[in-house]
Amino acid sequence: MLFEKIKSDILAHNSYIVGAGAEAAVIDPRRDCLVYAAVARREGMKITQIFETHKNEDYVIGSRELARPTGAEILHGAREEFGFGTGVREGETFSIGSLEIEVLETPGHTVESISLLLRDRSVSDDPLMVFSGDALFAGDVGRTDLAGENRRREASEMLHASLHQKILPLPDGTIVCPAHGAGSVCGGKISDREYTTIGYEKTTNELLALSKKEFVERKVNERLYEPPYFTVMRRLNKEGPPLIQNLPHLRPYSARDIRSLTDRGAQIVDIRSPTGFAGGHIPRTLNIWREGLPLYLGYFVNYEDPIVLVDDFNLDLDHVVRHFVRLGYDNIAGYLAGGFAAWFKQGETVERSGIWSPPDLAENLDDPSIYILDVRKIDHREEEGHIAGSHHIYVGHLEDHLDEIPEDKRIVVHCDVGYKGSIAASILRKHGFGNVTNLLGGTTGWKAANYPLVKEEEEKRALSAPSPM
């Protein structure tokens, strides 16, 4: 029997290829899909079926792309109309050599979500694995807010029923194969475990121990961020994403080309570290460090204007391009030939943003000309505490709240460590804020330097306490 998990880094997307004899099936493939064909070729197998557990929101699905060279049949849940493939219903079974895949309809995360129960009939009739899509994760369950607030309660009730009536009754030894791992935006707090089982989740996953009422209330009140690009993903994955056949070829641009492209509306994305960006960057550019691209591109980059990358040494750009392709950014056009050095060697204008260490901020904490902006997720701020006197806007929502930020003060932005803070600094600089500083180390460095974080209640009490006579 063939079983292989294919992980897409950063997005924390898991896809799988299973097979026996001469046949194989792929579950939830990514768009750059040659890896599955390579595995099948290595094992002497033909991919005959491709399953999509749901239409997905955080990446472009790869079933159409993989079906083109393999001729495999695409199968998805039948509760929603797709522009491609064949809808399947509860109880339908599919044979892959000695393996049998049975469809379980498990709506909740999305209405058409399915899970796939795998048996190896050559060994036993008992379930071996369940591919749970976004219904059940290690230590978590799928989010239920993506159909809209008006349907959130209904979706939460459906997910509870799917879990307790379809998935959890499976034998405790059944291996759970979810579509995402730790770090995915499709869950709240997915555990960092490669593998889990039904029995282990029933014992350790606190959400599964809740009553139906408690579960629904927890999910209805869960606060998760939805990047704007999710809307594009839902449309593409329902209608059928365009075929790309190969990764895009990036064109090398000179410094003068970049200046001209910027004037015509091109999106310049600087993928260097926060320190490199702060030391000098092309004016009006967005800074997202390499590993942060899949998580934050969808908040700030559009699908129309060409995208050009800026790096120091342009190493392994093919890997970077995969991040864009997986999110549907087929408008990625090129890169600055020679790296950022080519820009300043040409004598072009260089902008800078400031950087501070925690002691720098501590020394100036009472300075009224400073505005401290916390761009972490709200749950991090509430659970860990915050720097006294700071204001909060999540980095992904920053462009929608620029009018709340004073233009006549020094803006000191911070996050957990400094990477999201650099995104925020680049956005503020791009929108004309002239005095912007990123706190390197963020709250992690702040705590390591033994400076306090306060909770909202503590700060309110301190502010309302009467002044000593």
Automatic annotation (TrEMBL):
<dbReference type="GO" id="GO:0070813">
    <property type="term" value="P:hydrogen sulfide metabolic process"/>
</dbReference>
<keyword id="KW-0479">Metal-binding</keyword>
<dbReference type="InterPro" id="IPR044528">
    <property type="entry name" value="POD-like_MBL-fold"/>
</dbReference>
<dbReference type="InterPro" id="IPR001763">
    <property type="entry name" value="Rhodanese-like_dom"/>
</dbReference>
<dbReference type="InterPro" id="IPR036873">
    <property type="entry name" value="Rhodanese-like_dom_sf"/>
</dbReference>
<dbReference type="GO" id="GO:0006749">
    <property type="term" value="P:glutathione metabolic process"/>
</dbReference>
<dbReference type="InterPro" id="IPR036866">
    <property type="entry name" value="RibonucZ/Hydroxyglut_hydro"/>
</dbReference>
<feature type="domain" description="Rhodanese">
    <location>
        <begin position="366"/>
        <end position="455"/>
    </location>
</feature>
<dbReference type="InterPro" id="IPR051682">
    <property type="entry name" value="Mito_Persulfide_Diox"/>
</dbReference>
<dbReference type="InterPro" id="IPR001279">
    <property type="entry name" value="Metallo-B-lactamas"/>
</dbReference>
<dbReference type="GO" id="GO:0046872">
    <property type="term" value="F:metal ion binding"/>
</dbReference>
<dbReference type="Pfam" id="PF00581">
    <property type="entry name" value="Rhodanese"/>
</dbReference>
<dbReference type="GO" id="GO:0050313">
    <property type="term" value="F:sulfur dioxygenase activity"/>
</dbReference>
<protein>
    <submittedName>
        <fullName>MBL fold metallo-hydrolase</fullName>
    </submittedName>
</protein>
<feature type="domain" description="Rhodanese">
    <location>
        <begin position="262"/>
        <end position="352"/>
    </location>
</feature>
<dbReference type="Pfam" id="PF00753">
    <property type="entry name" value="Lactamase_B"/>
</dbReference>
